[in-house]
Design a protein that fits this description.
Blueprint (H helix, E strand, L loop, with lengths): L8 H5 L11 H51 L24 H18 L5
Length: 122
C-alpha cells in the first residue's frame, strides 16, 4: 500500500544541490583562449604604460632644469629695498593643457596671502 507512493530519497535530496561538472573540451579551449587574449591585452597595456612613464620622466628632467634656472634667477636678483615697503606679488601659472583647477587654486592662495599681509584684494 505504501510502496506505490514512496519516492527514492536520494533523488529528492539532491534536487536542490548544485554540482560542478567537468567542462567539455570545447569549453576548456574557449576559456584558455579567453585567458590568452587577456594576457595579450595586459601585455600591450604594460607597453603603453612604460612608454608613458618614459615620456613623463623626460618631461620631468626638462622641468627640473627649468625649475633650477628660475630658482637661481630669483635667488641672484639684485633687489633694492623700497622706502615705503610695499609688497609686490608675482604670481605665475600654467597656460597649457586642461589646468583650470590650478588657476583657481593659485588665485585663492594669493588672496589668502594678501589678506594675511593686510593688502587690498580687489
Amino acid at each position: 500500500m505504501f510502496a506505490s507512493r514512496a519516492q527514492p530519497v536520494a533523488s529528492v535530496l539532491s534536487a536542490g544541490v548544485q554540482t560542478r561538472n567537468m567542462g567539455t573540451l570545447r569549453e576548456i579551449q574557449l576559456r584558455l583562449k579567453a585567458i590568452q587574449n587577456i594576457g595579450k591585452i595586459t601585455k600591450s597595456m604594460k607597453m603603453i604604460a612604460s612608454t608613458k612613464v618614459g615620456k613623463a620622466q623626460k618631461a620631468m628632467e626638462s622641468a627640473r632644469v627649468y625649475g633650477s634656472t628660475s630658482a637661481s634667477i630669483y635667488k641672484n636678483a639684485n633687489t633694492v629695498p623700497l622706502e615705503n615697503e610695499e609688497k609686490v606679488y608675482i604670481v605665475s601659472s600654467s597656460d597649457r593643457g586642461l589646468c583650470g583647477g590650478i588657476h583657481s587654486s593659485v588665485a585663492k592662495a594669493t588672496r589668502r596671502m594678501m589678506v594675511a599681509d593686510g593688502a587690498p584684494t580687489n
